[in-house]
Amino acid sequence: MTSTTLTVQHAVGLHARPASRFVKLAKSFVSTIRVRNITRAGEEVDAKSLVKVIKIAAAQNHEIAVTADGGDEEAAIAAIEAFIREVPEEER
Question: Quick one: which of 33, 36, 39, 40 could link to 47 by a disulfide (CB 3.0–4.6 Å)?
Answer without folding.
Answer: 33
